[in-house]
Amino acid sequence: MIRGLVVTNTTKLVLLSLDGLGGLPHPDTGRSELETARIPHLHALAGRSACGLIRHVAPGITPGSGPGHLGLFGYDPLRYQVGRGVLEALGIDFDLRAGDVAARGNFCTVDRAGRITDRRAGRIPTELCASLCQRLRQIRLPGVKLFVEPVKEHRFVLVLRGTGLSGELSESDPQALGVPPRPVKALAPAARRTAALTNGFVAAAKKALARQAPANMVLLRGFDRLPRLPAFPRTFGLKAAAIAAYPMYRGLARLVGMEVLKTGATFADEVGTLRQHWEGYDFFFVHYKDTDKAGEDGDFPGKVAALERFDTLLPEILSLKPDVLAVTGDHASPALLKGHGWQPVPVLLWSTFCGADPVTLFTERACAAGTLGTFPAQDLMPLALANALRLTKFGA
Amino acid sequence: MIRGLVVTNTTKLVLLSLDGLGGLPHPDTGRSELETARIPHLHALAGRSACGLIRHVAPGITPGSGPGHLGLFGYDPLRYQVGRGVLEALGIDFDLRAGDVAARGNFCTVDRAGRITDRRAGRIPTELCASLCQRLRQIRLPGVKLFVEPVKEHRFVLVLRGTGLSGELSESDPQALGVPPRPVKALAPAARRTAALTNGFVAAAKKALARQAPANMVLLRGFDRLPRLPAFPRTFGLKAAAIAAYPMYRGLARLVGMEVLKTGATFADEVGTLRQHWEGYDFFFVHYKDTDKAGEDGDFPGKVAALERFDTLLPEILSLKPDVLAVTGDHASPALLKGHGWQPVPVLLWSTFCGADPVTLFTERACAAGTLGTFPAQDLMPLALANALRLTKFGA
User: Fold this and answer.
1) Taking 80 as the threshold, does the pLDDT of residue B396 lie above it?
2) Chain B residues 39-98 within an 8 A CB cutoff of chain A
3) Using a CB-CB distance cutoff of 8 angstroms, which residues of chain A are in contact with residue B364?
4) Interface ipTM
5) Chain B touched by A113 (CB under 8 Å)
6) Residue of A nearest to B68 (CA)
7) What is the pLDDT, as a whole number, of residue B30?
8) Which residues is B324 bridged to in the sheet?
9) pLDDT higher for B251 or A240?
């Protein structure tokens, strides 16, 4: 429906995603990370904005970074699912192409009878992982090109490239000890050849790793191909750029057809990149990672500090005078949970036409009373487009 | 589901639709039209009612008057779409019948080679439009009756009446200059005869208008037939009447099977009509246009004044002692936008059983905190019926 209503104009839209934004009250103070932090610019902006809470998947469901961001980009994350193999490949900036099949791999330990004794091979160092991957790259399979890319510790990505491949494969990882890895099975007739190729890779890997204990075997799971997503620029009529220091988020943006801009390692670098490319695009997705990192570490003061660092750079973004600015996150990462949370995430939406709103603080509690209410992530883009006057009337 | 739960009783329900009700804060004062107006009766009623915000189509989507009202009448506006030709016909009180095909027409200007030079023929006066329509009515087509009705300036409505007609036709208006009008094409095999008849009309119109420059040609778009809607009185078990000074809203009410009551040009006339027919019906839809007119004109003080005029007549409606009273609108028309807006629209629902609610002001901001929350328009009728004790239990 949206595509049929889109009109173009010269407005500029910015989506700021603070990864893992939402939190939970600290047991000692009763105040969440957002309620503890000194974030005067965010609070002032919330006072001028329409506020609410975003639910990314469904009540009680904790979103991964993939569905979390796809929702913010306007895609129903239940309809457009991305396999773990694909997400891992995106996460290391691997140039995954249409038709490639990607899987998440683990180096593991098996005993003489081939039974798994450690699913993570004692979490071998990343350097060792890289040299073992180098060894597995020597494997040759008929008619397909093979990529084996190290990730971190015992993790790697396997990619098969060729024609007629399918990701409809069962996993080799039994997720249990004392049993051997399972053969990979085709879950659809069209996947039979890919299953055979994959089992060929596993057999060859077993041979190549025979003397490499503890990393003497591999486990594979999360087989998938790149999903076919409607292109973001075409769907929303926006020339769109992504600015993210972390590869996973660049990969997700590339997946929906945004252009990925080269940037540095810090958020200040990202804001500099935004300024530099301001004239070249209609829409910018800017990703801030520090909030999630501290949340996942269970580091409450660290998350507070990350929010405060973000706040000091917000005026520089505002000085570019975007027509529409949305500030939110892809999921909660409460320090109390040391990981992603299912809680809905605060959102503020500012434009000349965003309307009156009683909210004056950018916190979980305050945003719950906002005029936007609690809404699905995929509604954010239509709201942002409306605020940019980029949608015509539905019906006469 | 609703139809199976409906029971009848002697309660009376009133739906007051303030067209274009919602607004946006004035940049100088930070207060919306509703927050600026002196509307003591509306505020007092909100204090006794359950309040909330109505979303007519989807987040960010600006509803036209058709989908806006169909939602208030209990129909999902995405499921029941009404073409522009039909809405135009309803808007001039044309007695459109099942099977008729209606199109929106423009008089336009073409050059000697037949290329469009002005899609609106210089916005010819309405009187000239009427006399040209009279000329086009002379056209004869085999097996169908033809109606050509003037609207305003260059606009007219074309209606074909006969058996076996179809509205699945492409538009002749290319929405561009320098090219000739397009032939009308059948979008389905069943529409081939209607396409041929329509092209016959266009060819005859071209001949008839040859010396009438600037209005020397016609453009047609928005072909459609009356949609088949479940009848409102049968669905909800209500003898229903519509009171509206403007033809478009009478047409929409007739479309769902309400009886349209004769009334005058002012809202005071409408309230008089309501009083006069109070005993004759279970349900009254009463439409107030002035709020939308001022909003579309960008006239902030005018919209404030329209709200205040409505407020002075509210006690007369209350004095009739309806069992259920809903006050809301079909879409926002913020003066700031000079047109329809996508913002959800305040709603109050009063009955003996409407429940406790913290809202004491009938404004966008206050209603956001109401117990009804933000909800789809088509949920209003079931809520109103429940408050009239006209719905039985679902399940034992």
Assistant:
1) no
2) 53, 57-68, 77-78, 81-82, 84, 87-88
3) 355-356, 371
4) 0.86
5) no
6) A395
7) 93
8) B13
9) A240
Contact A373, B374 (CB under 8 A): yes
Q: Considering only residues 339 to 378 of chain A, which have any Cβ-Cβ distance to chain B shorter than 8 Å?
A: 352-353, 355-358, 369-371, 373, 375
- B235 backbone dihedrals φ, ψ, rounded to 5°: -65, -45
Nearest CA in chain A to B84: A396
Contact A364, A348 (CB under 8 A): no
Rounded to 5 degrees, φ, ψ at A176 are: -155, 160
- B60:A385 CB<8 A: yes
Tokens encoding A307: 């929010």
Angle between helices B192-208 and B126-136 (to 10 degrees): 120
**Å between A374 CA and nearest CA of chain B:** 9
Q: Is the peptide bond before A214 cis (omega within 30 degrees of 0)?
A: yes
What is the CATH topology of the domain spanning A2-82+230-387?
A: Alkaline Phosphatase, subunit A (3.40.720)
pLDDT-based confidence at B68, cuts 50/70/90?
very high
Banded model confidence at residue A342, pLDDT cuts 50, 70, 90: very high
What was the pLDDT predicted at A201?
98
Q: Encoding tokens for residue B352?
A: 């003996």
Task: Please tell me if residue A5 touches chain B, with a CB cutoff of 8 Å.
Answer: yes
- Is the Cβ pair A379, B57 closer than 8 Å? no
Mutation target vs A (from B53, B343, B364; most A CBs, 10 A cutoff): B343
Taken as a whole, chain A contains a residue count of: 396
pLDDT tens digits, residue range A66-106? Answer: 999 999 999 999 999 898 899 889 889 899 998 999 999 99
DSSP A379: G
Partner-chain contact B81 A395, CB within 8 Å: yes
The pair of three-digit structure tokens given for residue A327, joined into one six-digit string: 């500030």
Contacts of A355 in chain B (CB under 8 A): 24-25, 32, 343, 364
Euclidean distance between CA atoms A108 and A131, whole angstroms? 15
**Inter-chain CB proximity A355 and B364 less than 8 Å:** yes
Are A363 and A31 spatial neighbours (Cβ–Cβ below 8 Å)?
Answer: no
Task: Please return the burial class of A211, using the count of CB atoms within 10 Å of its CB with bins 0-12, 13-18 and 19+.
Answer: exposed
Residues B340, A393: C-beta atoms closer than 8 Å: yes
Whole-number Å distance between alpha carbons of B292 and B334? 9
Q: What residues pair up with B87 in beta bridges, in sequence order? A: none
Cβ neighbours of residue A97 under 8 Å, at least 6 residues apart? A161, A226
A187's tokens: 């879950």
A373:B373 CB<8 A: yes
Containing H/E element for A5?
A: helix A2-5
Burial of residue A318 (number of CB atoms within 10 Å: 0-12, 13-18, 19+): middle
Q: Could you state, in order of their start, the residue ranges of all structural domains in chain B?
A: 2-81+229-387, 86-225
Asked if A1 and B77 come within 8 Å (Cβ–Cβ), the reply is: no
Specify the CATH architecture of the domain B2-81+229-387: 3-Layer(aba) Sandwich (3.40)
pLDDT in tens, A295-321: 999 999 999 999 999 999 999 999 999
Rounded Cα gap, residues A6 and A235, in angstroms: 8
Strand partners, A156: A105, A150
Q: Do A383 and B59 touch (CB under 8 A)?
A: yes
pLDDT bin (cut points 50, 70, 90) of residue B1 is confident
Taking CA–CA distances from B368, the nearest residue in chain A reads A371
Read off the pLDDT band of B228 (50, 70, 90). Answer: confident
Residue A116 has pLDDT above 90, yes or no: yes
* Mean pLDDT of all residues belonging to chain B: 95
Hey, what amino acid is at A250? R
pLDDT of residue A152: 87
Between the two ends of chain A, the Cα-to-Cα distance in Å is 15
Distance, in Å, from the CA atom of B17 to the CA atom of B69, rounded to the nearest integer, reads 8
